């Protein structure tokens, strides 16, 4: 390394009148940096717009399903706790209503995900098979 050169900088760097590296050298350094970061996996590739909206839709669906489930369990727990508090049936009200809240939350998640038909829209698979 040349005397007086800064560590990490090439000694024969072309500099402009202000003592700064010229734009050609900066472009080379930037491209080398991007190649190294990509090679090491530190540079993230931009996510395409269609994939981004698909991901955000999936996150929204997951948040909806988890809140449906948690709401069922919490409401069941509050009802059970209230019943135990005012009727003096501790701990049976809490146990029964937590289980009912769990079942209601699970049913709500299955309905929201489309695995179970809503009440009133029940169609049995055997009737549809008979038509075909």
UniProtKB/TrEMBL annotation:
Coiled coil regions, renumbered to chain: none
Keyword Transport: yes
Transmembrane segments: 65-83, 95-117
Keywords from the named record: Hydrogen ion transport, Ion transport, Membrane, Transmembrane, Transmembrane helix, Transport
Statement: the UniProt record of this protein carries the keyword Zinc-finger: no
Region (Disordered): 1-26
Superkingdom per UniProt: Bacteria
Pfam families documented for this protein: ATPase_gene1
Function: A possible function for this protein is to guide the assembly of the membrane sector of the ATPase enzyme complex.
Family: Belongs to the bacterial AtpI family.
Name of the featured protein: ATP synthase protein I
Species, as recorded: Daeguia caeni
């Amino acid at each position: 390394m040349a005397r007086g050169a800064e560590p990490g900088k090439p000694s024969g760097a072309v500099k402009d009148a202000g003592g700064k590296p010229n734009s050609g050298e900066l472009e080379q350094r930037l491209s080398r940096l991007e190649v190294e970061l990509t090679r090491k996996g530190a540079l993230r590739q931009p996510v395409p717009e269609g994939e981004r909206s698909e991901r955000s839709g999936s996150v929204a669906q997951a948040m909806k399903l988890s809140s449906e489930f948690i709401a069922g369990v919490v409401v069941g727990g509050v009802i059970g706790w209230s019943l135990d508090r005012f009727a003096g049936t501790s701990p049976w009200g809490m146990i029964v209503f937590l289980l009912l809240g769990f079942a209601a939350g699970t049913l709500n998640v299955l309905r929201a995900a489309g695995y179970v038909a809503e009440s009133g829209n029940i169609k049995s698979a055997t009737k549809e098979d008979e038509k075909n």
